[in-house]
Amino acid sequence: MSKAMMLRGDAAVAPRILAVVNQKGGVGKTTTTINLATALAACQKKVLVIDLDPQGNASTGLGVPRKNRDEDSYSVLIGASAIADATLETEVPRLCIVPSSQDLSGAEIELVTIEDREFRLREALVRHMAPGTNTYDYILIDCPPSLGLLTLNALVAADAVLVPLQCEFYALEGLSQLMRTVERVRTAFNPDLEIQGVVLTMFDRRNNLSIAVAEDVREHFGDKVYRTVIPRNVRVSEAPSHGLPVIVYDMRCSGSQAYIHLASEVMKRERSIAA
Length: 275
Fold this sequence. Notes:
alpha/beta
């Protein structure tokens, strides 16, 4: 049975599963996950975020206290909890999250000895999304800043990869490594995996390097790069300390508006894929 058939059951209610991945830290990966998810929810989509990063920043950024994370993505991966049992509602309507905890930091070691360790998240999603039971339009997986077993589980479970890319000198080098990893996963585990898009983050129009990097990335990856660019914005940086997505914290700021436009692009690409 193909991965698409396993995960989707009834194609009419199939969620799209997007892994938000970059092996480099500090590129706006978690910020992109929670704000894209919020923007999609604001567009009347039902969204689930799976926090697969041991740092748990997506959980914190969506206002989930650590004391409420008894069942989390770690317990899902080791088979102790079902996704439905670990899912929490957030303050954003139509947006839920499977939170992360510090326990996840040991999962890389524990998974090594488990059979079919690369498929743990996929199997949990298969059980969760039996025909007629799915309630989500999108599932976004926030991956850790590495290409280890946690990220591999996300790539094996995902339909597509969304890559946040900071506009800095070494951006293309890191992106090329990630693309090679995606190709290996496609060959070995998940032939349906595709690149949904690359989003340029922390862009500063006053900085010549940001402009040059953006031009290089678009030259190399063409229309895989979203037209929307996420600017450097102090409100985006402030929002997580309040346990809020920036779109809730300050919807009018340039960062919020950029993520709303990004959500529109993502949905447009998804419609073209479905067609």
